[in-house]
Fold these 2 entries.
Entry 1:
Amino acid sequence: MATKNFQKQQNPFIYLGYAGPDYFFDRTEESEELIENLKNGRNTTLISPRRIGKTGLINHVFYLLHQQDKNAVCIYIDIFSTKNQHDFVQLLGTAIAQYTLSYEQKALNRLLEFFGSWRPVFSADPITGMPTVSVSIEPTQSALTLKTIFDYMNQSKHHIYIAIDEFQQIMNYPETGTEALLRSYVQFATNVTFIFSGSKQHLMAQMFSSPDRPFYQSTASMGLEPINEEIYYDYASRLFEKKKSYLDRDVFRHLYQRFDGVTYNIQVLLNHLYASGRRVETDQQVAEAILHIVGRSAMQYEGLVTFLTDNQFQLLKAIAKEGVTKSPQSGEFLRKYGLPSASSVKTALDVLVDKDLVYNTSMGYIVYDRFMGIWLKRLV
């Protein structure tokens, strides 16, 4: 399969998707380590909070692998939305079918012949117009189909690299033994190498570091930290200079530290500042940009909190106003924000963490979406 041709971007600060190597920077050591693992048959566990750049790194590594081997098969799936084993198998099967369709129609026909039970549905992508295919799998056949998928991949003449993002989601499946079933196939996959990535560190650690779990010590482990501040500034300032503009170092330092180096938030902000066409010389310009971004997302945030109970919403707002708190169940915190009992707060906190609205960092609990946190702080 030919390497994808990427279009030149009018605004170089990309915060959604992967737009090619021209808009990807740093992560050199991580890219080299991940490629070395993949090419040497070492499955890898990649763990970091969301919005730090896991998906971008995986896509970049897959791009580099294609550059080195045009026949390499690189497949990425995000299983965050899957609810059970059937959803997982169907998503994996669709991803393989879609890749095969993009490669050659005859190859897709052979694939569908191999999977006699698959019912393909062909359509056109509503945005690109490119042909797409999805497959329908009988729920009762999901375990058998998973075995068939691995049989098919093991017969491939090309090496296959598969990244499964938000891998900890399989712990929530109602079927017992999904981890063990998948592990039984992964360990004997002859020419398939995996990246298991996830954002919930405690769950991923439990899956790969606990002796009683099927994937115990079966992978190389990698973490992903925020991009170094100086490296980030040098990259960003060069892009501003190319546009005959300017990004002040101290201003960048303040915005980087305000968002704790979280790539997504910084890229969104830099995208907005770059688009303004102005020299960025004051913190006030950054504040105005933040308010614009938060205001643009206010309706989304309002819709999101309508699904929370009053206790959950009040706790979320309290954590946002505090910025970061190690002890949201402490008497001092409860009194300060007029919250109910510690047990009620614990119940609400568990829900907020599970919904990825609150994240437990080394410093304490914070609102996951930093822009949402700013919106919450401004509420009465």
Entry 2:
Amino acid sequence: MSQQTATPGGRDIFIVSNNVDELGGVTTWSHQMARLFTDRGHRVHIVGIAPVAEEIRQKLPQDLPYDVTTLYEEHPPAARRLRGIKGRLNAPERRRQAARRAGMRAKGEQLSELFRAARPGGLVIVTQVWAMEWVALADTKGLSVIGMSHESFEASKKSTRGERVRRHYAEVDRLLVLTAEDADLWIRAGMENVGSMPNPLPFMPETPAPRTEKVVASVGRLAFEKGVDLLLDAWADTAPRHPDWVLRIYGAGLEEPALRAHCTSLGLDDSVEWMGSTGDVLGALRGASVFAQASRAEGFPITLLEAMAAGLPVAAFDCAPGVREIVTHGEDGLLARLGNTMELAGHLDALMSDRELRDRLGDTAFQAVKRYSSAEITDRWETLFSFLER
């Protein structure tokens, strides 16, 4: 992939994701970076492959200062391998897969048309490996292509995404993961040209939260990997010792009915408040005194950055290198072993019981997280852009 000298007035940057508006960290990251790049004078276009279901879609502002495009009007058929004689003789499935491939080629050409309009020095940032399957069909001549994985190496390895990262990102100019620890693991796994780039802070308040409310907050999608069921298990252990505290769960998702039923089965309905999605995360956090996260898997969780920027001490599972890079146990938060709900409950109990501990960890978090300021991280991106252009 050849590079050319950038023209004055910024670069053309395409951020290509599975979709443009799904609830979750990748969407938050994409639109945050689009704004930051736009503020630096670049011309940004966010491209999603497919739409998402209404119940997991976030409402985007009407006045975005950059273009947003979704390639498909409906989600494309899933890819399936035709195995053995039975698969080869399955004529309807063969026709369906042939139609899928033809549709992918057509959408790849649509991407090519967008990319060809880019000025010299342009870049394509692919945030998710599924989206790379379409970018690989497009003409990226003259553009630098950056592939990203927003999850830990271990999480990728446990799913089909690990093999797909190795296959689809093999020829990109740079593969970016979220921590240096994960970059080392990918290099050992045989990937070359791997680097790390942390997520930036979505906001940086001037003062920390007052931490006066007897509220533990959780923010995130109501999905299996986010471990809200495990958080409820931990809350069941510690809530009886703190009858004047409540757990506020901010988020929405397909798991909500099952999670509400689990909450009821644990006898927690009086101490758990289901808040739904919020457009004011900082306001939600400033109304709490402790932040809890029980994810089974994470990359570089933006919600932890947000909580620490709000000045809240965090209690979380040590589920990924990104968590360990953000939180220093005993200094700005408390980490429990993955899946150990009793240990997580103990950390919540300690923070709820000790105002001095909450204030000390929260104030340290408020200062420590500034190393992920939007200006610092955007500068790192600019340095990478210049390096790839050489």
